[in-house]
Amino acid sequence: MIQYIIRRLLYVLPVLLGVNILTFVLFFVVNSPDDMARMQLGDKHVTQHAVDNWKKQRGYDLPLLWNDKVQGLSHIEETIFFRKSVGLFIFDFGLSDSGRDISADIKQRMWPSLAIAIPSLIFGVLTNITFALLLIFYRSSYLEFAGLFFCIALMSISGLFYIIAGQYFIGKLLVLTPISGYVPGISAFKFIILPVLIGVIGGLGSGTRWYRTLFLEEAAKDYVRTAKSKGLSDLQVLFKHVLHNALIPILTGIVVILPLLFMGSLIMESFFGIPGLGSYTIDAINRQDFSIVRSMVFLGSFLYIIGLLLTDLSYTWVDPRVRLE
Amino acid sequence: MLTFLWTDVLLFGMVACLIFLVWQISRKEHLRRPWLSVFNSKVGVVSLVFLLFFLLVALLDSTRVVQSSVSQSQQNNVSRSSLSLLDIVLTPIRTQVEKTYSAPFSSYAYTKEILVDKSGKTLWVYPRLKYGGMHLSDPSTQMAMDILFKSLQGLVWGSASWLVFVIVVFAISKKPLKSKWSVARQYSLLTLFIIFIVMFIGIELAPHYHIFGTDKVGEDVLYQTLKSIRTGLLIGSLTTVVMLPFAVVLGLLAGFFRGWMDDVIQYIYTTLSSIPSVLLIAAAILMAQVYMVNNPDLFTTIEDRADIRLLLLCLILGLTSWTGLCRLLRAETLKIREMDYVTAARALGVSRIKLLQKHILPNVMHLVMITLVLDFSGLVLAEAVLSYINIGVDPSTYSWGNMINTSRLEMAREPVVWWSLSASFLVMFSLVLAANLFADVVRDAFDPRANH
């Protein structure tokens, strides 16, 4: 078991290195730092001096991969790749292009993101499972047909509409919750309700269908038939047997996205003005702050891989039949 | 004279491939069977007809005619404007541009203005629109009757032309009139009836009213929504064309050869899929913007630039989305290569290329088909989100994402400007719903695990 975890962790390294090289190529080789400087400083009427200055301030004036001017190990150390990319491996994100400490920003902005993402996940999963169980319970009736069509219809609506409509009807017309904004601490509660509600409704269609297929797969198995022939009612079979056994894929499905909750939701946060990591990323994209975008790419990939690892481990935890070799 | 943008060429190429594929499938019994069950489902037929209608609009919008070459003398600032067939069809509503916002079916502008009436008094009133309802002398009393009358007219014309269409269809087909109608024929004609009626009511009303109102600069919103169809369809379909070769070739190779090739391919797709796709797209689009700013002479017209950006977006979306299908195909190939018939073929000395091509590829095609139709609607929705974060299509391109993006501020106005949002919602919803329903039917028909 421990051996397996170590082996998996070692496998993470080359993937992260790949991510790193890919972003490095995208950000520094396809476009030289000169291009970035010109973009930031204004397109045409920029002197070479201003460009050099901009690069020097941000440490982009070094060679990309190999420095001829210095001796020894500094050949590699005094380069953009080493300075900008290797630091990411020890989660030293450095300074953003506008001079702020990225690590401090991330630590501070993580909490609002989690405040939205965790309740959305919990309530989302609970409602989805409830609806999926209802659909299974009323199997092959008009109610199920209508429910399935309703799910597809919900899936066909862009998430943006849910947000805009929610803000308009609940925030502006009914004035039940603030339209957007955030305050830290316990009073954040009233700002969280609307995003969470919209998040739950937005994911209802696809989520319900996903859990329904899980339950259907489980319901087709032999032990369900046995339970029924023993004389158990549909309701008992559904809750005692099907739900219990379907918990394995449900749990592992949730574990994979757990680490990514830190990243927050890009759209939701920027619409509701929540100072989380999602809106941080969006702002960085709009301001074309490449350091932040690169840090977030790295962080996102890292969390994704951790999620995959946790999924594998959770299989052994919830299902004793699975052994990791 | 005809002119083409890159995306136009690709769209037509794709349609040609599609037609070729349909012809191929219709000749082979075993390929035809699952499709027959699609055509036997009511939902499948109805959604397919709707999708084909949207495709027709997109094709009309991709056939361009050079209208005028403005300012040839200024070589560095050639603004070539081209019109698509759709533009020409929609001429009245394209050219009837008001001053600013106006509500659907309104004859008055959204904002008050100072007007001088005949007796010389200055009034602070809502002015009449230049085009919307201008044929009415007193809109408040006549409008309801006029709209009703024009809709009835449209209903009559629509039914009449539908009848003509049905008669033509019967004249062409060899089956006797009294034979039993198949589900496909019954429901496709029924769907066409609805499309005809809506279209003809639109044709009657659109020249006289702004059915979906006008936007900030007075452009008709109906025109914008119809133009957006092409963008949505292109993103949905072109992206799948980009991802298909990657997913199929790499997936089959990884599953079939195993060993180091499997390791390398697995490594590539784990790396790619571990990067949050939004961020990868953002990075690539940012880079493209930097490139375009630094090389302005490569992209002379706004149209060209917007087109290249659309193409690039499809390319990047394709590069980020092939991993899922690749993983599926790899797993399936691993399973199939151990089957008896493959072993038998290998024992008979079939080469490996031939084995992949003739024995394995056809048996994973159902997975490809299902993934393609399932992904389509997701991509159309993704476009809206990406355009909202400014990493989607060019702001000058007509797209639902751009419409929603601007309508966000309009919802905060007083009184609310709701029509832009509603119009894009309505058309986008109908396209995505049709695609989703169709995908469902196709999956049921192709999935071997589905209940038979």
Percent helix range of chain B: 55-70%
Which class of secondary structure composition applies to the elements of chain A? mainly alpha
Rg of Cα set of chain B: 26 Å
CATH class of the domain at 229-446 in chain B: Mainly Alpha
Strand order of the largest sheet of chain B: 1-2-3
How many strands, which pairing sense, and closed or not: the largest β-sheet of chain A?
none
- Kindly estimate the percentage of residues of chain B that lie in beta strands according to DSSP: 5-15%
Tell me the Rg of chain A in angstroms.
25 Å
What is the count of DSSP helices of chain B, taking H or I runs of 4+ residues? 15
Count of runs of 4 or more consecutive helical residues of chain A: 14
Provide the helix percentage of chain A.
Answer: over 70%
* Record field, number of beta strands of chain A: 0
Runs of chain B with pLDDT <50, length 5+? 70-79
Structural class of chain B: mainly alpha
Biggest sheet features of chain B: 3 strands, antiparallel
Name given to the CATH architecture of the domain at 229-446 in chain B: Orthogonal Bundle
* Biggest interface between chains: A-B, 46 and 46 residues
**In terms of quaternary structure, what is this?**
heterodimer
The CATH topology of the domain at 229-446 in chain B, please?
A: MetI-like fold
Description:
The complex is a heterodimer of chains A (325) and B (452). Chain A is an all-alpha fold and 325 residues long. Chain A is 73% helix and 0% strand. Chain A is globular and about 85 Å long. Chain A starts with a helix and ends in a 7-residue tail after the last helix. With 452 residues, chain B is mainly α. Helix content of chain B is 68%, strand content 5%. Chain B has 15 helices and five strands. In chain B, strand 4 and strand 5 (122-125) form a beta hairpin. The N and C termini of chain B lie far apart (54 Å). Chains A and B meet through helix 1, helix 2, helix 7, helix 8 and helix 12 of A and helix 9, helix 10, helix 13, helix 14 and helix 15 of B.
